[in-house]
Write a structure and sequence with these properties.
Number of strands: 0
Low-confidence stretches: none
Number of helices: 3
Helix content: over 70%
Structural class: mainly alpha
Strand content: under 5%
Number of domains: 1
Distance between the termini: 18 Å
Shape: elongated
Radius of gyration: 18 Å
Largest sheet: none
Length: about 80
Amino acid sequence: MPGQNISFSKPNDEWLKAQVDNKEYSSKSELVNDLIRQARKQQVQIDWIRAKLEKSEKSGFTSESKDEILKQSKSLLNDGV
């Protein structure tokens, strides 16, 4: 895995250390990777919603119910990156 040197603000570094000290994560690297995974997963859902909105704006209507759209959105969130 490629290594990186990054700097954190003092509050962020203290928060990272607290998560590791509380045994939530074994290292700051593991925590940062998890945060990045979560952000990527959120971006997939945001992109999906944006595409749905753009399609809806262009067509004016959708044949899917709000429950169907919500189900698809939750499925995407659970199965995302």
